[in-house]
Amino acid sequence: MSNDRLDAILAAAYECFTRHGMRRTTMDDIAAAAGMSRPAVYQYVRNKDDAYRRLAERLFARSLSDAHSAAADPTTPLTERLVAVLGAKLELTLTLHRDSRHAAELLDESTKLTGDLVAAYTRELTDVVADALAGPAGTRARGVADVMVALTRGLEADLTDPDLPRRRLRDGVALIVAGLDTPGDPA
Known about the structure:
Blueprint: H1 3-20, H2 27-34, H3 38-42, H4 48-72, H5 78-99, H6 103-137, H7 141-155, H8 163-180
Helix pairs in contact: 1-2, 1-4, 4-5, 4-6, 5-6, 5-7, 5-8, 6-7, 7-8
């Protein structure tokens, strides 16, 4: 099987899901957008739910790759690295909201169809943040990482102004990192 054809199908699926929403998208829509017959599409994906899951896997993998790259540069100040790592997650939601008036429906479907993928993505993203915090936060690194990921998820609730969550993420991360320098209860 050709990866190029699967790429075309998943790109077409994204186009259809963002244009029509999950419920209104059909396999015929995906096949037409991919420039393929429906039987040819079925050689690569079982149904639109399978196309959605495969698309989500790719989007999560790309976001995690961006997060790992951002975390890997030790010459970049910690606050900037963490903003970039968490920004990779925030951009997933911002992009979906920019691309589709059906974003709420698609995110709801994501919970139903890809809950396991979302959980794995969140765990790995939290691991990346915790690893970046290991030195400055010490034994609190995982707990602080959990708070930072929760902050990012909370910022996704109001996307009326796409720049606002980006600014708030930067401010929140800066506050948390600044708080690491103050002595506190390690428990």
